[in-house]
Structures are given as C-alpha cells and as structure tokens.
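Worked example 2:
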Amino acid sequence: MQNLWTFITRHFHWLLFMILEAVSIVMLFSYNSYQASVWISSANLVTGKIYEWKANVTHFFSLSERNEQLTLRNTELEQQIDKLRQHVCDLTSDTSYAQRIELENLKQFELIPAKVVSNSINNADNLITIDKGSDDGVMADMGVVSGNGVVGVVYLTSKNYSVVIPVLNNRSRISCSIRGQEYFGYLEWKGGDPTRASVEDIPRHARFKKGDWIETSGYSSIFPHGVTVGQIEKIFNSADGLSYRLQVKLSTDFSSLRDVCIINDKSMAERMRVKEAAIDSLMLIQKKE
C-alpha cells in the first residue's frame, strides 16, 4: 500500500494530466456536433473492420458446410429450371422462348454480392451489417436476399458498409403471397424462434394447405415477385376471425448467414418518382377542396 501511495504522489502530475485530457476529449465530442460526427464515422469504420476480420475467420471454418449447402441448392434450382423450361416448351413449341423471357426479366435487376460481417438473431430488433455501402451502389430500401430466400431490407449505408433490417426484426413487414395464387399478406416476426415467422391478413376465401410455399408478392418496390420466403407449417385464425394467420418455416437460416446479394431494381427509382408525384397531386387536390 505504501508503495502504491509513493507511486501516485511521485507521478501525480501525469495522472492528473491524463484525467483532465480524458474529460476534455469527452466534452469536445459531446458538445460539438461536427467533432461528434467525425468520431462516430471513425468509430463505425473501426467497428466495421473488426466485425469484418471476425467474420472472415468464421467464414473460413464454415466453408465446407456452406459449399455442401450451395451444391444442394444449385442442384434443386437446376431441376426446377429444367422442369419450367420443358413446360414452357411444351406450351409454346419454342425451345428458346423461356431463355428469352428469362434474360429479359433479368435485365431489370442488378445483384450486388456482399458478406455478412455482423449478425444477431436473439434480440427483438435484430440488425445485420454487410461489407458493401454507397461506394458499391447500395442504397437504403434495397432488398437483400441469400441463396435460400429473403433476408431483409437495407436501412442505413456508409461508404463501405450497410445496416440491414432482417426478417427477424419487429419492424420488418414484407408483402408475400402463396406460390401459384394471388392471395397475399404481410410477413412479420414477433420474436422468439429465429426459424419461424408469420404471414398475416390472408383472406378467408383463400384456398391453400400446409406445405405450400410462401414467396414475395412483387407488390412493393423492394423485392421482385417470386423470391422464396418459406413453407406453411400451421394455419390459425386471426384475432378478429376475418382472416388467416400462417406460421411459416423460413427458408433462410439466419444463424449461419454468410453471403447475401443486394437487389438493385433499376426501375425502382422511376416507380418511386411516380408514387411521390401521385402523393403530391393528391395533397394538392385535398388542399383545393
């Protein structure tokens, strides 16, 4: 104890200097908006790099499992594509028709590949950080998918990173439909099991069964039609008894999510401008009335 006290008294001026320096730095960044923004940007960059290094290590040790999953998924998709092409060929008697339609649809979209550097599945408001940002063409409100299905929607972007609101977030609400039918509702997650979510507001006259697939409806400007969401596991009545609530087993495994793609819909900007113009016109009409 005596030695500690001797050390403090001998170096008191240096300790006092460091304490005052720390207090001044805290006050500088707390009460000056410009310095605070610089600090936040720098901190986000450092945090993003740390998450990226951690994710790279995790990715390395899970490559074998991921390759096996991708091989199985690619095989399934190739079989589905072959069946669809054969069906179109039988209907049209044109062997190149399906390929021409496929290429025409893909022209509208650009896929930006990215890696997950930070992810959570146990919170009410889970967030995902990916290693692509505004410098890579990523913008807020772009859809994010994986090889197995829907992931979420881009919320915030910086130059090199983006934050995604995934399906496993209480604020997520994605328009979905039953595959092969026109009935649609909204995908929501109430917390708890990260492998399951629910589709709300399916109309009472809809006809479907357990095991049917749920996919994006295409009624929003975020996701195109037909992106896989999951399979119907259970069917419930809504609280008011006017619609169905479907429990869906999600096709995306968020606990092992590593690689994603951001969907850049080239027509989205035009559709958003038309929508904003329509809203402005309605507001002007209401003011005149």
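The domain at 112-268 is CATH 2.40.10.350 (Thrombin, subunit H). Helices lie at 2-10, 12-31, 33-61, 63-92, 97-106, 268-288.
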